[in-house]
Amino acid sequence: NLASWRGKNGELAQAITEFETLLTDRKHLLGPDHPDTLTTRNNLARWRGRNGELARAITEFETLLTDR
């Protein structure tokens, strides 16, 4: 998807923005517990970590583990 492509091409901030938008849409359309929503949360946390937002990424991963 576009968000992953941006991240892989070094556009980390844009990738994060894309994943944030996608997450909002998926929560609304699919619900917070849908596997695709959870995968998007995982991807968002991963790109936050790669962007140097380590504390936030760790918190998001920890929350995701309890929600899965």
Walkthrough of the structure:
The protein has 68 residues and is mainly alpha-helical. It has one domain. Helices cover 82% and strands 0% of the residues. The protein contains 4 helices and no strands. The chain has helices at residues 2-8, 12-30, 35-50, 54-67. α1 (2-8) packs antiparallel against α2 (12-30). The N and C termini lie far apart (23 Å). The model has no long low-confidence stretch (mean pLDDT 95).
Q: Tally the helices: what do you get?
A: 4
Overall strand count = 0
What would you call the shape? flat
The profile of the biggest β sheet is: none
Count of the domains: 1
Overall mean pLDDT: 95
- Helix/strand-derived category reads mainly alpha
Residue share in helix: over 70%
List the helices and strands and how they pair.
Blueprint: H1 2-8, H2 12-30, H3 35-50, H4 54-67
Structure, briefly:
The protein is built from 4 helices and no strands.
Fill in the keyword field for this structure:
68 residues; mainly alpha; flat
